[in-house]
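Sequence in, structure out.
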Amino acid sequence: MNSAPGSLHPSVAEAPPNARPGVSLFRLYTLRVCYLILAAGLGAYIWPGVISHTAGFAVAHGIQSALLAGLGLTAVLGLRYPVQMLPLLLFELTWKAIYLVAFALPLWRAHQMTPAAAADIQSVLMVLILVPLIPWVYVWKQYVVKPGERWR
């Protein structure tokens, strides 16, 4: 039984929604490892400050901590839906690239590196492990080449 074009019910002959052509099982597991590292790392370093903090910490680091805690908590969804949660990894890669280009590089060029800035840069550079693990061909086809959803 096939459904009519534009119907909300897929036909039996169509591929199941969880089938992701072009993303191998090995790649799905490497993505899951990325989400696990992201969730566990942020869980270990950020959540203790979210759960137990001072008013001074809330003023100085509240927004940053809340954003990173939300990112880590959302990364847990990537364990179950590794391909659907790719935008989360792309966000992680993007904000860290922006930090490195817009903030860290000018500090380094101006010879104004502090130990704190160097530590931040070192932790942000960990994003490099994501680069080869992201299925870039899929990202290109899904987010660049594929037509967007209708506006009206």
